Amino acid sequence: MTAARGSRLIVLNWRDRRHPAAGGAELYCERAARELTRQGRSVVLVTSRPAGTPAREELDGYQIRRLGSWWSVYPLALLWLLRHRAEVGAVVDSQNGIPFFSPLVTRRDVPVVLLVHHVHQDLFARALRPAAARLARWLEGPASRRVYRRRTVVVLSPSARAAVRRRLRFDGPVVVVPCGADSLGVERRRSATPRVVVVGRLTALKRLDALVDAMPEVQARHPEAELHLVGGGPARTGLEERARAVGARVVFHGRLPDAERDAVLGAAWLTVSASDGGDWAPSLIEANGAGVPALARRVSGMTDAVRHGRTGWLVDGTSAELGAAVSRALTVLADPVVAATMAGRARSWAARFTWTGTAAGLLTAVGLEDARLERRRHGFAERRAGNDLVVVLSVPESAIRGEWQTSRRAGDVWVSDGTVVRGLLAGADEGDVQGILDRLDVDRTDPAVSVLVARHADLLGQWSDPEDAIDLAEAVGRPVEVRSDDQGGDRHAA
């Protein structure tokens, strides 16, 4: 950051965790703020003020400023930024359908990163009246594109990145920064009888009505099976009525203290998402962290979160077929050996997602935006990023005559197992790879050098395990052997 501007990192989000309608976006901002503060950053979360909450509060070392209602927080937050303009060093601007448009009031040298949790274009059409939906789509699309188009954007998954490119048509760098998992230390005490547990806010968009409707079929095949719903929300009353109407055995826990919630989750055999789509599924990762496999429909977002056959299952078809899929999963998990294997794989997958990694990803995005502004200040022309390709470069350490630790570009991740050095290179094309090999002083024709296209698992796992580079990548220009095994049919470079 330049010496002329402040050092405070401002996080803008329309709600915080004390808001009665708080959800995953609020958890993301809260945990990221806490971790950034732990790392020595001065963080202020600017958000709305629901009844009964103080205007100012300090939580886990970071400051909270609450202003206005769910809609008035937007102009009030801009006024707050104007008043504290000299103190602002960077901004993470959360777009929960509508962003804060903070670049309109911040200094030109201040990096503003847009955090997009979901793309709401289709949701607006379903949830709002036609006129309001048109306005909301314009604010999320053309208006946001005009303000943020070339700025760095943070998303939680590859599916969200694709939506930002295709639906919102942003041109700048799009960085995948998943959320962490708070459930990694949850004790696993699986119930003696089949139990499906879903943790999260009860809303119509999650299609929990389909899961409730499916439970009579599940209970016909597994008479002792139960569905446990943990969380509150506007859909609870309707779900309770539906459960009584169809004769489903459903336990509604409401919102629970963390320890009680974790105990219910740790007793589960399975968690389920009946959603028609979304950009990420943090509740499934949380369940995996507790050793609970996940079952979800094969739709956007869920295909990022669930590794089919390893951490759970993806199912095709309509929600009407959900009951049969849940029944099959419970039958498979009745085998204690299979259940233990799935639990271990689920925990390993969830262990990739840490709030330390989330904070590091956000800081990387801020650094990329800062570098972009610096290039612009020095008169370099803006160019469309466009290339979201991420490749895995694998080079024997013995073939490297240069210093690989100093050859990385901003945003790249490098690891070494002592024998092979592997780099996860974002936005790299053939010329970039050749340039890196030249800096490493590596013979480009060496047959031991390989370049692979990264798959979703590489991007989502913060890519810290060298063994995953081959296991989770597809070869470029080389044959690929597809092995169907009991590990879920991973692809390996031939």
Give me the secondary-structure topology.
Elements (H helix, E strand, L loop, with lengths): L7 E5 L11 H15 L3 E6 L8 E4 L2 E5 L6 H11 L4 E8 L16 E5 L4 H7 L2 H19 L4 E3 L2 H11 L5 E3 L18 E5 L8 H14 L4 E5 L5 H11 L3 E5 L3 H9 L4 E3 L8 H8 L4 E4 L4 H4 L6 E4 L6 H12 L2 H15 L4 H23 L12 E7 L16 E4 L3 E7 L3 H11 L9 E5 L1 H5 L7 H4 L1 E3 L4 E3 L8 E3 L1
Parallel strand pairs: 1-2, 1-5, 2-4, 5-6, 6-7, 7-8, 9-10, 10-11, 12-13, 13-14
Antiparallel strand pairs: 3-4, 15-17, 15-18, 16-17, 18-19, 20-21
Helix pairs in contact: 1-13, 3-4, 6-7, 6-11, 9-12
Please describe what this structure looks like.
This protein folds into three domains: 8-176, Rossmann fold; 195-350, Rossmann fold, CATH 3.40.50.2000; 389-493, no CATH class. Helix 3 runs antiparallel to helix 4, helix 6 crosses helix 11 (322-333) and helix 9 packs across helix 12 (336-350). 36% of the residues lie in helices and 20% in strands. The chain has 16 helices and 21 strands. The strands form five sheets. The protein has an eight-stranded mixed β-sheet with strand order 3-4-2-1-5-6-7-8, sandwiched between helices. It is of the alpha/beta class.
